[in-house]
Amino acid sequence: MTFSGELDTGQDFELSMAANLVIRSRADSPELKKAASSIEHAAWSDLGFLNYTRSHYEHYADLLDAYPEYQLCLVDEDTGYPVAVANSVPIVCSGPADLPPEGWDWVVETAARSKDARANMLGALAVSVPAVHRSKGYARMMIRALLELAERKKLDGVVVPVRPSAKVKHPWVPLSEYITWTDPDGRMYDPWLRSHLASGGKIVGLAERSMVVHEPLPFWENWSKQRFETSGNYALEGTIAPVRIDVDRQIGTYEEPNVWVAYAA
Question: Please, are residues 133 and 127 in contact by the beta-carbon 8 Å criterion?
Answer without folding.
Answer: no
